[in-house]
Specification:
The chain has 375 residues and is mainly α. 48% of the residues lie in helices and 7% in strands. It is built from 11 helices and 10 strands. It has a two-stranded antiparallel ribbon with strand order 1-5. A two-stranded antiparallel ribbon has the order 2-3. Helix 6 packs across helix 8, helix 7 runs antiparallel to helix 8 and helix 8 packs antiparallel against helix 10. The chain is globular, with a radius of gyration of 26 Å. The termini are far apart.
């Protein structure tokens, strides 16, 4: 009951601040108590300047109803049917935030105009669902294609191979049903590897874990910048892929335990450091981060994982167990993901080209590196 009352008071404060009034705890009540809906607080907003009409209008808007059900003085209606929060609101600085149509003709910081396919709510809009690079095809070194394909082709060329060894693998999400078996086989193989190899996987796992937060941050930055659904969809998918990368990498690091039955993962939860963020509309900084962290960073990660996958495949003798093959498949799947993340960064830079008055830079993949030259 005390927990319900405390959380309800917070919601009261959020709701009443929305209509410019003050919280009046004398009028606080919870008609239903803690029922099946959980804590269902109701409150009264006291607006001294306009106690009836103004409060009612504000109450019917998202400023009040997003936070809680508020019954207004001198009115018989309620803000929100059922006195409950609709979904999970985005609360920042004690405000519930929702988007509004961007003032594109006035605000030169925003990308001007958009094709129909990028419009929210357009029935044939582009929702960012694209096939994985190399999935279902035997990519060859002479193939052209986008950035993701170029990264794969460069890795193949560097290894002296002519075609994609795993054309059926498009990414880590597609391997998820087979992860337990693949990880067990790869762990058995890595158990005999030098300790530094397993330590590298541990460091990679922590970096991938942090990338989950990095793509969550990117999603909010894209929302603030007014990005189209296709870019957000790809950033959300990237976040899910990075979660799998962290799990896979930390599982491979766990192979240092000789006894397979002792490989039970980390002994305690991974806790990310506390920190605060301030999201500003800064398209120039977003473009720079997309180049440095996306085109270069994710591109480098893709090349590294492609190389690890091919090295593991080359290490496998004809009579050897499935361990190297399993490790190769896992690394190849993650490499495909990272190549797609680099492509997402390229798409963001292209989308920002008009707003930042900068052309998309020239991107060349060669000699095991991603070179970016501004035009």
């Amino acid at each position: 009951k005390l927990a319900c009352f405390a959380s309800s008071l917070l919601l009261v404060s959020l709701a009443c601040s929305g209509c410019g009034g003050e919280t009046n705890t004398d009028h606080f009540y919870n008609e239903g108590g803690c029922d099946d809906w959980g804590c269902a607080p109701c409150c009264q907003c006291v607006c001294p300047d306009h106690p009836t009409e103004g409060c009612s209008e504000q109450a019917l808007s998202s400023q009040c109803s997003d936070a809680c059900c508020a019954k207004m003085p001198n009115t018989t209606g309620a803000c929100n049917e059922g006195c409950m929060v609709a979904g999970r609101p985005y609360i920042a600085q004690q405000r519930s935030l929702t988007a509004s149509l961007a003032p594109q003709l006035k605000d030169t910081r925003l990308p001007q105009g958009q094709p129909e396919a990028d419009a929210w709510g357009f029935v044939r809009g582009d929702l960012g669902h694209h096939p994985a690079p190399g999935a279902g095809v035997a990519a060859r070194v002479e193939d052209g294609g986008g950035l993701a394909s170029q990264l794969m082709v460069e890795a193949l060329r560097s290894a002296g191979l002519a075609a994609n060894p795993w054309p059926e693998i498009g990414g880590s999400l597609g391997l998820e049903p087979h992860l337990p078996d693949l990880l067990a086989e790869a762990q058995a193989h890595l158990a005999a590897s030098p300790p530094e190899a397993r330590e590298r996987w541990h460091g990679d796992g922590l970096a991938e874990h942090a990338s989950v937060g990095s793509f969550a941050k990117l999603c909010v930055e894209l929302l603030v910048a007014g990005a189209p659904p296709r870019l957000l969809r790809q950033a959300i998918k990237a976040q899910e892929e990075e979660l799998l990368h962290a799990h896979i990498s930390l599982a491979l690091a766990d192979s240092r335990k000789a006894d397979a039955s002792a490989r039970t993962g980390l002994s305690s939860p991974l806790q990310f450091p506390e920190h605060s963020l301030d999201f500003k509309l800064d398209l120039v900084s977003m473009r720079r981060a997309s180049i440095d962290e996306g085109l270069k960073g994710e591109g480098h990660s893709a090349l590294k994982l492609f190389k690890q996958a091919l090295e593991a495949l080359n290490d496998q003798a004809p009579t050897q167990a499935a361990g190297p093959s399993a490790l190769s498949k896992l690394a190849w799947a993650m490499a495909n993901d990272e190549a797609r993340h680099a492509t997402l960064a390229s798409d963001i830079v292209e989308w920002l080209s008009h707003a930042t008055a900068r052309q998309h830079p020239e991107v060349v993949v060669r000699s095991g590196a991603v070179e970016v030259t501004e035009l």
